[in-house]
Write a structure and sequence with these properties.
alpha+beta; five-stranded mixed β-barrel; 7 strands
Length: about 170
């Protein structure tokens, strides 16, 4: 695995299209051992505790195609702080450094946020009709849940990635 003073961050959902931090490089990347799943009840960003939305998490098993961002060493501490404030609002994600394979074959240790299956906001695999209902109702501080699903789906398609679950939801919305 390549070593450098730079911070790498792996994005698989909204981080792909709205990172919110400065970066030197953006590369397509694969993470093995985890997959992208609409498995988190959103109580802040795309819903509320009373009317939860549904957002993506990295759940164990499989492989996830996403984006890796290279952050300059002098921006690393501020970027990690920003990501913790954004991703750890309700502690549904666990911060990990995981091996990510970049387009071109190089492997780097990237900061990633993995869903905590023991957290009350972990939804697991839901029937499509339940997912659709939650996405349709969800509105939070980062906006409407349908916009999140459509935008993530669109950005994945631009990268040449097909996600059948997001495609079905985006079509139904």
């Amino acid at each position: 695995m390549a070593e450098s003073g730079d911070l790498w961050v792996f994005g698989y959902g909204s981080l792909m299209w709205r990172p919110g931090f400065p970066f030197l490089e953006r590369r397509h990347a694969h993470l093995h051992g985890y997959h992208r799943a609409l498995c988190v009840y959103s109580h802040v960003h795309r819903g509320t505790p009373e009317r939860p939305g549904l957002v993506l998490g990295l759940d164990r098993g499989g492989r996830c195609h996403g984006v890796a961002f290279r952050v300059a060493p002098e921006e690393a501490a501020e970027t990690v702080q920003y990501l913790r404030e954004r991703e750890q609002v309700t502690a549904v994600y666990v911060e990990r450094r995981l091996p990510v394979r970049l387009a071109g074959g190089e492997t780097v240790a990237a900061l990633a946020y993995v869903v905590d299956r023991g957290h009350p906001q972990y939804a697991g695999r839901l029937p499509q009709e339940d997912s659709l209902r939650l996405v349709r109702q969800g509105v939070g501080v980062s906006g409407a849940n349908p916009d999140y699903v459509r935008s993530t789906h669109r950005h994945l398609l631009e990268m040449g990635v097909t996600d059948p679950v997001l495609a079905q939801l985006a079509a139904a919305l």
